[in-house]
Amino acid sequence: MVSISLKNITKTFEKVVACENINLDIKEGEFFTLLGPSGCGKTTVLRLLAGFYLPDKGSIFFDDKNITNFPPNKRETGMVFQNYALWPHMKVFDNVAYGLQIRKFSKEEIKKRVSNVLNLVQLRELENRTPFQLSGGQQQRVALARALVIEPKVLLLDEPLSNLDAKLRLEMRNEIMRIQKKLGITTVYVTHDQEEALSISDRIAILRNGTVQQVNPPKEVYLHPVNTFVADFIGQCSFFPGIIEALDEHLHIRLYSGGTLISPKKDQSQVGQKVLCAIRPENFHLKTPEGEFDKIECEIVSVAFIGKSTRLHAMIGELEIIVDAPSGTDLKEGDKAIFYYLIHEVTVLEA
Ligand code: ADP
Ligand code: MG
After folding, report:
1. pTM for this prediction
2. Of 222, 214, 157, 221, nearest to 185 (Cα)?
3. Is 263:348 a contact under the CB 8 Å cutoff?
4. Which residues surround ligand 2, an ion (CB under 5 A)?
5. I want to staple 9 with a disulfide (CB 3.0 to 4.6 A). Which of 22, 204, 313, 325 is the partner?
């Protein structure tokens, strides 16, 4: 097991800056996720770790060893590619064995290791099939086995579940977590799916345009996003721009859309300061909640039943908000409504 450090990593492709001054410290045995929209630089970071790209600037350490200029085969990383990249004409066994053969392992050692890893991913009975004779989920397992068979110090996974259907995605997600915990291998996982990132990771780095926005455990990222990009990308939020009109143990904010909002106090808050507050859809309530709360008045503009809840869009003046109400609600378009929120569940962001 190793820890990973990226120090001031920048990588450009002609005019495109894929990663800009990235600093990350990934702990030994950690399940670390790079999360962000398409094109934000996730794959580039993974390829820099694997050694398929070299950075323009900065350095990469595995423990205290500077591996910035090591070729891929000297890094002891195993990578699972987004499209699996299996050899179509080779049997499962040979696909997995390939990395050991080029490393000149003995026949017996190869047989032992491949069998062990195929057991681990539950593919032992299918070792004589070719990829064409496997489902998407099974191909995914082969790709994982092939990455693990060399007993890498670092496992790199590039959107490994994006080609699977919803049910299988959930099953493989649990499978990857099980195997990662069992082996205790330092893992860097790439996804654009925020729910997947929240459920699978020890910590998440959120990327935007090649820069790191926030690095925290899932709960922390969700409950305390550092800016509007993170707040909006992880789950959804209603945003309330306004100005602080009074200060006591809370902030009292006059909203530009009309009405007021009460939020927790931040260090250095001052009357007259512009702020942006955010509230999650599930943090609005139809009844008064337990704890210190306040309310907003609005008009419902749309109602969509989505099974476990009903999603409402409502207007406060010109401002649109999103509310998740219980699925049994009888609120309808055009209704005036009052929603309650707990003051401590309001996030205050820089305006
Ligand atoms: P992600 O994996 O988050 O979707 P990438 O790391 O693949 O993002 O890409 C980041 C940016 O770098 C994108 O704008 C992409 O077009 C560009 N890019 C990535 N790889 C190359 C390459 N080999 N040549 C030129 N541009 C690239
Ligand atoms: Mg990618």
Report:
1. 0.90
2. 157
3. yes
4. 43
5. 22
Alpha-carbon separation of residue 314 from 125, 241, 301, 311 (angstroms): 55, 16, 5, 10
Q: What is the pLDDT of residue 304?
A: 95
CATH of 4-230, one of 3.30.2350.10, 3.40.30.10, 3.40.1180.10, 3.40.50.300: 3.40.50.300
Closest CA to 45 of 261, 237, 206: 206
How far does residue 86's CA lie from ligand 1's centre (Å)? 22
State the sign of the Cα–Cα–Cα–Cα dihedral 227, 229, 234, 237.
positive
Indicate the SS3 state at residue 231: helix
Same CATH fold, 236-350 and 4-230? no
Tell me, in angstroms, the distance from the centre of ligand 1 to residue 177's CA.
27
Looking at residue 350, its pLDDT comes to 78
Q: Is 40 in the pocket of ligand 1 (CB under 6 A)?
A: yes
Can you read off the two tokens belonging to residue 46?
Answer: 């993974």
The residue extents of the domains of the chain are 4-230, 236-350
With a 6 A CB cut-off, is 15 part of the ligand 1 pocket? no
Q: What per-residue confidence (pLDDT) applies to 79? A: 94
Ligand 1 atom at minimum distance from 14 CA: 25
pLDDT averaged per 10 residues in sequence order, the chain, 351 residues: 96 95 98 97 97 97 97 93 90 95 93 94 92 91 93 95 86 91 95 95 98 97 92 91 95 93 91 94 95 96 93 94 93 96 93 73
Q: Pick the residue whose CA is nearest to atom 11 on ligand 1.
A: 18
Nearest atom of ligand 1 to the alpha carbon of 38: 4
Q: Tell me which CATH code domain 236-350 carries.
A: 2.40.50.140
- Coil, strand or helix at 84: coil
